[in-house]
Amino acid sequence: MQITIRGHHLTITPAIEEDIRLKFSQMTKHLDQINSMQVKLSKDHQIDKHSKKGSDNHIAEAIIRLPGIEMFAQASADDMYTSIKKLTEKLKRQLHKHRKMQVEYQPLLV
What we know:
Layout: E1 2-8, H1 14-27, E2 36-43, E3 58-66, E4 69-77, H2 80-104
Parallel strand pairs: 1-2
Antiparallel strand pairs: 2-3, 3-4
Helix pairs in contact: 1-2
Protein name: Ribosome hibernation promoting factor
Subunit structure: Associates exclusively with 100S ribosomes, which are dimers of 70S ribosomes.
Family: Belongs to the HPF/YfiA ribosome-associated protein family. Short HPF subfamily.
């Protein structure tokens, strides 16, 4: 499986890259159909007028390509590690749903 990690308005540190690779490999170890993954990390520099802080300004997005289907998820939080965690949780739910549908709709062999 090929994982592409890009950063927009931030530098991808080795720690962030290792965290992404670890979480995504754990998430997909039981699903060998994945062709490729693209992960985009970005930081929005908007500041909230009331708190003078950026709220949910670390954004993580991912596209997973399987044969015949693409899955997309996006998550945001106050720090990058939390947004990556939220992103993996969303993708786990999507992959579980996809796997469940595959099992349910397989033709029965007689």
